[in-house]
Specification:
This protein is α/β, with parallel strands linked by helices and 340 residues long. The chain has 10 helices and 13 strands.
């Protein structure tokens, strides 16, 4: 069973963006405690930064909740478009409502999650991060998204697919995980001996299609023929720009299949699966493990969609790299040094 309540304070902003930002404050029910470790079905609350209709990161979170209902008999609720300053309040409301497992879907909520977890030791929290942090409370599971691992094969693919030898990275906000993606692409270029040049730019907003379209148009005009995007709703604008580009201009996406946006210019997407990650954590909680660390990888939670609009030889090359990553034969450095 799932319940939701809309956060009216964020609705106007959500409508202005057309998609990725609404809010909701779910709740209800009696206290459980122990996150299901006592044999009772867990009561799970999730905090999302976007809307579940975004066909992107938040939608993947909703899918994971729905699977938890089916596999673990969980009662679930969620809040959409929660702003970082509101996160602690929303988390405390879920604690007061008796939810036994609280998941914050986004690393921007990590500090708030840890703060509230320290106040509520009988509740299990799932927090996302892009590293393995120290001093984690015993009742917090850390889910590491490992974006640097995800982007390494994109560097190999972009280099092989580019005809101009000029590729670009288009991000939203200059955050550590975004820097790690850029450096992973740089490492892939170096490891393969590629002479391709990489240009990295940020629009300032993951969810602004207009700015993404403008930046993409400029990148293409500058001769970049492969653009690696790391955006949410903004990616729609990026694909609008590449749709007007000459044949041979290609673009990658993130999180979900977005091939419908510009089929002739679509290269691939790094696919994320939070269902399998949430299932493993919930199973561990049921076994009495109230905290821990679980990293996503090309063995679990991350997959590369079969590349399109390239030769089979390129596909085979990238498939081999993914296999090597899954086997631990390639080590990708997690470098969060700011990109100048």
């Amino acid at each position: 069973m799932r319940t939701t309540r809309l956060l009216a304070g964020t609705l106007a902003g959500a409508l202005a963006l057309s998609l990725t930002a609404c809010g909701d404050d779910g709740g209800g029910g009696s206290a459980g405690g122990g996150g299901g470790g006592d044999g009772e079905a867990p009561r799970i609350a999730a905090v999302f930064s976007g809307t579940t209709t975004d066909a992107d990161y938040t939608f993947l979170g909703l899918q994971a909740l729905e699977q938890a209902e089916e596999d673990h008999g969980a009662e679930t609720t969620y809040s959409e478009s929660v702003l970082v300053p509101d996160a602690e309040r929303v988390l405390r409301e879920y604690v007061a409502d008796g939810y036994t497992v609280i998941w914050t879907h986004g690393s921007q909520f990590y500090d708030a999650t840890v703060a509230v977890a320290q106040e509520a030791p009988d509740v299990v929290f799932i927090a996302e991060q892009d590293t393995e942090p120290a001093d984690v409370p015993d009742n917090v599971w850390v889910l590491d998204r490992n974006f640097h691992l995800a982007f390494y094969p994109l560097g190999v693919l972009a280099s092989a697919a580019s005809q101009s030898g000029r590729i670009a990275y288009l991000g939203g906000v200059t955050l550590p995980f975004s820097y790690s993606e850029v450096h992973a692409v740089e490492q892939a270029l170096a490891d393969t001996g590629s002479t391709a040049t990489l240009t990295s730019v940020w629009t300032g907003d993951f969810n602004d299609p207009t700015r993404a379209q403008q930046f993409t148009s400029q990148l293409l005009a500058d001769g970049n023929d492969v653009v690696l995007t790391s955006l949410n709703l903004g990616v729609v604008g990026a694909f609008e720009a590449v749709g007007d580009a000459p044949a041979g201009a290609l673009m990658t996406a993130k999180y979900t299949d977005k091939s419908n946006l510009a089929p002739e210019h679509y290269l691939t997407s790094v696919l994320y699966d939070f269902e399998v990650m949430l299932d493993e954590i919930l199973t561990s909680i049921e076994d009495g493990e109230t905290g821990g660390y679980l990293g996503m990888s090309y063995e679990q939670g991350i997959a590369l969609q079969t590349p399109q609009n390239v030769d089979q030889a390129v596909i085979d090359q990238v498939d081999q790299v993914v296999e090597q990553l899954a086997a631990g034969e390639i080590e990708v450095e997690r470098d969060v040094t700011p990109v100048e």
